[in-house]
Amino acid sequence: MIKGLGIDLTEIARVAHMAHRHQQTIARVLTPAERAQYQQFSGQRANEYLAGRWSLKESFAKAWGTGIGKAVGFQDIEILDNELGAPVVTKSPFNGTVHASVSHTGELVMTEIILETD
After folding, report:
1. N or C: which end of the chain has fewer CB within 10 A?
2. Residue 26 to residue 77: CA distance in whole angstroms
3. What is the pLDDT along the chain (118 residues), one digit of tens a residue?
4. Residues annotated in the binding site, as ranges?
5. Binding residue numbers for Mg(2+)
6. Are strands 78-81 and 108-116 parallel, antiparallel or unpaired?
7. How far apart are CA 2 and CA 39, in angstroms?
8. Where is the 4'-phosphopantetheinyl transferase domain (predicted)?
């Protein structure tokens, strides 16, 4: 049964600009394991990864029924790429299955999270 659905659309340049101006943005948004993946990238791909994680976590918070920072924060959710590059939620406050999807254009990242129980 679907318990929640969240989508988000984020401008990649806005998140990259924030991270460039405020170095703590990366540590605030990404868990240590996500930062390890992030550090493997550079340039636009690094910007896409950071904006993608930002957007995925926003989508999760919307599916959760709150918003980021109210009942769930960036560090409460961890989403790592699997060996094929697909996002997999490895940590969250939800006790069920979490489905994640991310797609990029040159300027935008769109994400979707579905929370499902048996």
Report:
1. C
2. 14
3. 999 999 999 999 999 999 999 989 999 999 999 999 999 999 999 999 999 999 999 999 999 998 888 789 999 999 999 999 999 999 999 999 999 999 999 999 999 999 999 8
4. 8, 58
5. 8, 58
6. unpaired
7. 34
8. 4-104
With tokens 């935008």, the residue in question is 108
Active site residue 3: no
Q: Indicate the angle between helix axes 43-64 and 12-21, nearest 10 degrees.
A: 100
Q: Identity (one letter) of the amino acid at 56?
A: L
Quote the number of domains for the chain. Answer: 1
Rg of the chain, C-alpha, whole Å: 13
Its pTM stands at 0.94
Domain at 31, CATH number = 3.90.470.20
SS3 of residue 45 by DSSP: helix
Q: What does the pLDDT look like over 4-13, one tens digit per residue?
A: 999 999 999 9
Which of the following is catalytic: 62, 70, 91, 99? 62
Residue from 3, 91, 110 nearest 48 by CA: 110
Range of the domain at 103: 2-116
**What's the pLDDT score for residue 69?**
84
